[in-house]
Structure formats: C-alpha cells, structure tokens
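Structure (tokenized):
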C-alpha cells in the first residue's frame, strides 16, 4: 500500500531536496532565457519571508513548493515542482491547496505567482486556473516579460 503524501515544512538541509530543486532550476532553463527565470535557488528559499514545504510519500520526496510573504496582505507561490515520476497524481494540487490555506490563515487577501508563458508551462497555468487564479499584470519586483505569465487569486 502506498503512503499518503505528507507536506512537511522545511527540508532545505536534505540532499534529495537539493537535487529536486536543481531539477526545478534545470527545467526552467529548458524553457526560458536566464534573464526570464524567476525560480529561487537554495539561498533564495532560506530567507525569513519564505516558507518552504517538501512533499513526501513515505521516504520518497515527490514535490516541493514555497510561500513568500510580499507584504502583510500579499503572498507569492514559489518553487512549485513535482518529481517527474509523480506527475499527474495530484501532488501539485495538494501544494497549491496548502499554500492557499496557509495564506488565508496568515490573513493575506491576495496570493500571486509568476509562471512561464512557453508551452512547457501550460500544465502549470492550467493547474493555477483550476484553483481560481487569473492572469494579472506584474506584481512586486517583476516587470513585463514575454516569457512570464502573472496570476493572482483574491482571498477576500
């Protein structure tokens, strides 16, 4: 019997998390030029305003995600990645649901994200739209970029 996925806060000290994050960065590099990649590296995830989650199925790391506080009312989803062998199993949806619940618990009124515009990011855009995220303009420190799609969800 397969263990249910478990979302754990942290894990940035684990080698398997480092490897998954490197895969995430490498995947971004396949679809976007360097100046259009906004994924956080390990040091970017280790700052106080970022909460990082690793997702496990038993002893197997199957995904990750993070929530960055932009202000007391606005958060940003970062570093969403599902291990290739676990795609299509709802892992990313569980991370999005967890991020939304955490944002609401923190009192955020808005949750936003940046993802890619190339075809390699189509599944991500579809996932976020399924949870009610809609396209918006750049937020925070972002600028218009033909390789970026900005999305937001009003939390009320």
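Design, position by position:
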């Amino acid at each position: 019997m397969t263990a249910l996925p478990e979302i754990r806060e942290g894990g940035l000290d684990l080698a398997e998390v480092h490897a998954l994050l490197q895969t995430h960065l490498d995947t971004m590099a396949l679809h976007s030029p360097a100046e259009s990649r906004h994924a956080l590296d390990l040091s970017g995830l280790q700052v106080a305003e970022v909460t990082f989650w690793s997702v496990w199925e038993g002893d197997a790391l199957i995904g990750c995600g993070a929530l960055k506080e932009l202000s007391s009312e606005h958060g940003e989803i970062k570093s969403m990645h599902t291990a290739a062998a676990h795609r299509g199993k709802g892992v990313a949806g569980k991370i999005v649901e967890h991020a939304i619940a955490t944002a609401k618990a923190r009192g955020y009124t808005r949750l936003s994200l940046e993802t890619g515009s190339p075809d390699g990011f189509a599944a991500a855009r579809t996932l976020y739209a399924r949870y009610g995220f809609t396209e918006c303009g750049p937020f925070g420190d972002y600028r218009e970029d033909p390789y970026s799609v900005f999305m937001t969800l009003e939390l009320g």
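Reviewer-requested clarification: The radius of gyration is 15 Å. The CA atoms of residues 12 and 46 lie 8 Å apart.
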